[in-house]
Amino acid sequence: MAASATAVLLDVKKASRSFGGLKALSEVSLHINKGELIGLIGPNGAGKTTLFNLLTGVYPPSTGSIILGNESVGGMKPYRINRKGAARTFQNIRLFTAMTVLDNVKIAFHQHAKHSMFTSMLRLPNHFKGEDEITQKALDILKIFNLDDQSTELAGNLSYGNQRRLEIARALAAGPKLLLLDEPAAGMNPNETHDLMNLIAWIRKEFDLTILLIEHDMSLVMGVCDRIYVLDRGMLIANGTPSEIRSNPKVIEAYLGQEA
Ligand SMILES: Nc1ncnc2c1ncn2[C@@H]1O[C@H](COP(=O)(O)OP(=O)(O)OP(=O)(O)O)[C@@H](O)[C@H]1O
Fold first, then answer.
1. Ligand 1, atom 1: nearest CA belongs to which residue?
2. How many CA atoms does the CB half-sphere of 157 hold within 13 Å?
3. Does an H or E element contain 40, and which?
4. Which atom of ligand 1 is closest in space to residue 20's alpha carbon?
5. What does the pLDDT look like over 117-165, one tens digit per residue?
6. Is 45 touching ligand 1 by the criterion CB < 6 Å?
7. What is the Å distance from ligand 1's center to 251 Cα?
8. 48 lines ligand 1 (CB under 6 A)
9. Which residues make up the CATH 3.40.50.300 domain(s) of the chain?
10. CATH says 1-85+176-259 is which class?
């Protein structure tokens, strides 16, 4: 097997995060290999979003390390981690609702564009060339998400399901190596959810992505993920293939505990 097939993209070592007296994450260690699609599940309050927040720089870890590629990114500012190749979507959609669908995606491209502030301010030819290129790239991404015919619509006017898709399109525009999706199917109906999962599996291949996915819908996670990590009360209680996780007594107990 080629070395790159098993190269580790994300390596989290004993990451902890406390909020006052509450230990939201306790010494969590996990790794994701390049190209994997990994699920992150756990009952409410387990620490899933907190882990995403550490991975994307919203909070620094209280202790422990986070290595992305070959670099330690724990505690870096979000925009720097984004530039290092990690992009995310949020549980609560965070689009610029008063801007067009196209501009929402173009903004993400601009953050990574090569043309300088100088050429933009002076409206030099390179600015327009860069702008045309970015518009075209943004439209190409919108097409993948079947949103190109709504490119001039305000983002806030899209249906809920389409707003979720636009969030993923925007994250992709940042050209990430690692895509972090926080409940991308929340609020979608079963058909939309099914379509979205197929799309996620497709973009993973098409864009050579590594994906970490938080999702509450078990059948959905089991259907698309290579491996799954399970958090409960801030601790990692299991890691394995979907079938291993499905029959893991600790996982069953954690979820039954939630329903009791
Ligand atoms: N900024 C914060 N300040 C204080 N407590 C926080 C903060 N962020 C998270 N927590 C707490 O940390 C714990 C883990 O929360 P987190 O949102 O990470 O869980 P989750 O697994 O994503 O839950 P859910 O599935 O309900 O979204 C919870 O007890 C939460 O109240």
1. 19
2. 10
3. strand 37-41
4. 4
5. 555 555 555 555 577 888 999 999 999 999 999 999 999 999 988 998 9
6. yes
7. 19
8. yes
9. 1-85+176-259
10. alpha beta
